[in-house]
Amino acid sequence: MRWNNATTGRWTHRLIPNLTPWLQRRHGQVDFYLTQMISGHGCFKEYLHRFKHEPNPYCDHCGTGSIEDAEHALFICPLFVRYRAEAETTTVCNLTADNVMSCTLESQSKWDAIANMAAGILKELRRRERSRRIQS
Ligand SMILES: [Zn+2]
């Protein structure tokens, strides 16, 4: 299988541009939340909006200028700065979509820190989605 835009989404390809080191890693279990991060299929408003589960794709925290996609939630939105800061302290990386997966490959502790970040942010997004549904 060729690892390119034809077989994977652009987001996944951006996170994992080179499949070989990813497949040859000696540590790191891909859990439920990392799967959401890597696929971009989580409670991101842009994703939910695509399936008409949300009236708009915008981040409630940042406003209409910002689409809440995986990159926004995981790496940009100030709402989740504490999850990011925690992971960056452990990884000593300034985490972005372009370096996060190579950072996970450096050690088990970096992997765990980033998995925790993804879990924290994605659980919070799920909670926020639920509360929007209850209110509407
Ligand atoms: Zn935001």
Task: Produce a short descriptive summary.
This protein has 8 helices and 2 strands; from the N terminus they run ααααββαααα. It is mainly α and 136 residues long.
Indicate the topology.
Blueprint: H1 10-15, H2 19-23, H3 32-39, H4 45-50, E1 58-59, E2 63-67, H5 70-76, H6 81-91, H7 100-104, H8 108-135
Antiparallel strand pairs: 1-2
The structure holds zinc ion.
Residues 59, 61-62, 66, 72, 77, 79 line the site of zinc ion (ZN).
Characterize the structure shown.
The longest helix has 28 residues. This protein has 136 residues and is mainly α. Helix 3 crosses helix 8 and helix 6 runs antiparallel to helix 8. Strands 1-2 form a two-stranded antiparallel sheet. The chain has one domain. It contains eight helices and two strands. The site of zinc ion has 7 residues, from loops. This is Reverse transcriptase. It comes from Drosophila suzukii (Spotted-wing drosophila fruit fly).
Structural classification: mainly alpha
Proportion of helical residues: 55-70%
Counting H and I runs of at least 4 residues, what is the number of helices? 8
What is the chain-wise order of helices and strands?
A: HHHHEEHHHH
Uncertain spans: none
What is the overall silhouette? globular
* Strand segment count: 2
The figure for the number of domains is: 1
Our Rg estimate from Cα atoms comes to 15 Å
Strand order of the largest sheet: 1-2
Q: What's the rounded overall pLDDT mean?
A: 93
**Major sheet characteristics:** 2 strands, antiparallel
Protein name: Reverse transcriptase
Organism: Drosophila suzukii
